Fold this protein.
Amino acid sequence: MNLGIVGAGKIVKEALPVMEQISAYTFQSLVSSGRNPENVENLQKQFNIKHIFDDYDAFLADETIDTIYLAVPNHLHYARKAIKQHKHVICEKPFTLTKEELLELKTLAEVHQVIIIEAITNLYLSNFDVLKQSLLELGDSKIAQFNYSQYSSRYDDFKKGIIQPAFDPAKGGGALMDINVYNIHLAIALFGKPNGVSYFANIENNIDTSGILQLDYDDIKVVCIGAKDSSSDNQSYIQGEKATINIKGPTNELKAFELKYNNGGTQSYRVNQHEHRMYEEFVKIAEIIKEKDFDTAMQKLEHSIQVSEVLELALDSAHIELGPSVNNK
């Protein structure tokens, strides 16, 4: 695919070396704000990007681009224009700030016959497939606790009054949308849509810097912990009548997990196909787009819609109000 890249920040600098290893991707164009031309020039040289734009409309008008990769702050994920220009869309999490926005994008994508898909690392990893199968070994699952806590390098600036997008409510920031979202994707992929959602957040300057999300199901109770103002060793657990699963490390990587039986015995799993968490994600997304696998893409999108609904309910329960999305993206 001929890829158009939207953004030139941290996530792009991490993603492009991974995509470069996958033959399906050709870096056709990149569009950025133009605030840091030296950074963009370095990216163009390093990854042989053919064209650079500082105007989004001109970027989308480039007919050689068939797919765009959105890796910009959360409030810029509302990809209406790209879809109307018949571009497939790979969007970093969260897909949109509201469920209503995502439903609109779904309708537009159906009209224009393009694939839109959320880049959420953990659900594409080989360890996830084994993890989901391992739930059968637990008997009835009772309690799940997912923890992804990582002290943000931007939090020190935030405390000084320097507000970057990750902590800016006007730009869809906060711990829930930025880091706990991985836990939510994992929980819904494993257990389905919850019956109830409650979010208990530490709020500073109108944004959640950390919080605990409770998801209520008929037969299992789930807690999702996400923090950008503190750290932990990121251990997660799914407890059942017959065994317990211990996920080691942050939930966006799913590097390894152990299955421990109550009557003794342990199975260890570490089957991801690549050392970088994004590799399998980008391989599988490329296959979906290349094969025009609209059925799989729609399954992924329906999952993202459920996640979007949970995020919205969580924000409402904690009385957190995010700014509107920017409609020209």
Q: What stands out?
A: The chain has a mean pLDDT of 96. The first strand starts at residue 2 and ends at 6.
